[in-house]
Specification:
The chain is an alpha+beta fold and 266 residues long. The chain has six helices and 14 strands.
């Protein structure tokens, strides 16, 4: 089974992604904005501190459905090089992607610029790009559901919460490693003949966006129009699940091989 390859890259780590206002490729784009503290001008010498930088964690749901985009952040950096505030100047088109970029940016460390030999605060404009590579169909996905039609399952899940579903579904089952991320876990439930009956995905379990996804395969054999019933249970409540309905009806990226942009999301 091949792994879904996920890239959450930001200009801090890949200089080719940045449009620098200075010649040094290790320097971020900086720009003055109206604030109560003095900011560095556009030709600031603000640079990144040496050493590895925390990379954004691709949200599990977004990775499953191929939601991608670029968030542009405006960071305020203190004289000691710490990020004291982060503002989204341009959204990636998806709240979870923006949140992932912000959480990483707050942990970045800089070397502040100097004025009259004294370290001063500065601003950095940082684009953070999230992109997903098209994966191969996993071996366990039923061969007669290569191009299925997804419909919302009207039957309610028999669990009171996402955590209850996780405890029940995972009992005695090994997680599948289609996506190399702690943000998602996948489990297969087979019928008494060994055929895949349900496919479960749990995403973002350590966040407020925790979601349990259930795909129910409704036919055997080779139906002319295979249909998969999909339902979701969300820690954020029914309204949060409803906001994801359009993605649920597109199917997971690994089952379609198609990429979708968050900016084109309804």
């Amino acid at each position: 089974m091949r792994n879904l390859i996920i890239a959450a890259t930001c200009v801090l780590a890949v200089s080719a992604c940045a449009t620098n206002a200075v010649s040094n490729s290790s320097k971020p784009v900086v720009a003055p904005i109206a604030q109560q503290v003095e900011a560095q001008p556009a030709n600031s010498s603000l640079t990144y501190a040496a050493g590895p930088r925390i990379q954004p964690i691709y949200p599990g749901f977004d990775a499953i459905y191929g939601i991608q985009g670029t968030a542009v952040l405006m960071l305020l950096v203190t004289p000691n090089g710490q990020v004291t505030s982060v503002r989204v100047e341009k959204s990636a088109g998806d709240r979870q992607l923006d949140r992932a970029a912000i959480n990483a940016a707050r942990q970045w460390q800089f070397i502040a610029g100097r004025k009259n030999a004294v370290a001063v605060p500065g601003y950095a404009r940082i684009p953070v790009n999230f992109s997903v590579n098209s994966p191969s169909l996993p071996n366990d996905w039923p061969a007669n559901y290569i191009h299925p039609r997804y419909v919302l399952d009207t039957q309610a899940m028999p669990y009171a919460s996402v955590d209850d579903a996780l405890l029940s579904v995972t009992a005695g089952r090994a997680s599948m490693s289609i996506i190399p991320s702690r943000e998602s876990q996948m489990f297969v439930i087979r019928d008494d003949k060994g055929a895949v009956h349900e496919w479960w995905i749990f995403t973002d379990m350590d966040t407020e966006y925790a979601t349990a996804l259930r795909y129910t395969f409704t036919y055997t054999g080779m139906p002319a129009v295979p249909e998969i019933k999909v339902s979701a249970l969300c820690r954020g409540g029914a309204s949060f699940c409803d906001s994801k309905a359009s993605w649920l009806l597109r199917g997971p990226l690994f089952a379609t091989g198609l990429q979708s942009s968050a900016e084109k999301s309804p």
